[in-house]
Give the backbone structure.
Amino acid sequence: MIDYDRRALVEAYIAVQPETRQEPYGSNTAFATAMLAHRKRVLDGLQRLFGVVLEREATPQNQRALFFMFNRVIASYLKVSAPGDGMVDATAIYQQLEQNGLERTALISGLTRIRECNEQVREHHLEVLDVLVGVFLGDRADATFTSADLAALGVDDSAGPKTADYDMWEDY
């Protein structure tokens, strides 16, 4: 059973954005499409439970500038990256470092610090988004819901696609 607070609502919203980084689904677009559909169902259910629709047109006029900022923070969050993001294998890089007489530890250390800083930056983004969603939710800002609440709406948060049901590397 999963508990959902407003931070979970924010994370669900981020998960359905077109700019969200591709997950390691290989080249299987059917799986990616099924996962996106599942995530949208969960987001829609959470929006119903919280009594909010995170869309510009549904935002009250006196909160439109805040919704604009919300989307800017989402866009910024999605742009946070590190030089090694998306790399599956760094063997060639390490080999060339060694061929040029360098140890890989300095590179790894620097990349690790970048990733750690990025995680802190992402956390700060989520804190700002949490504040903004708190405004949108008003008196429901401290509400929490569970998987059972979603199920009562017909949304099974555990019904996402299973990688075992797909050929994850069909194009390789």
Residues 104-137 form the longest helix (34 residues). The first strand starts at residue 3 and ends at 4.
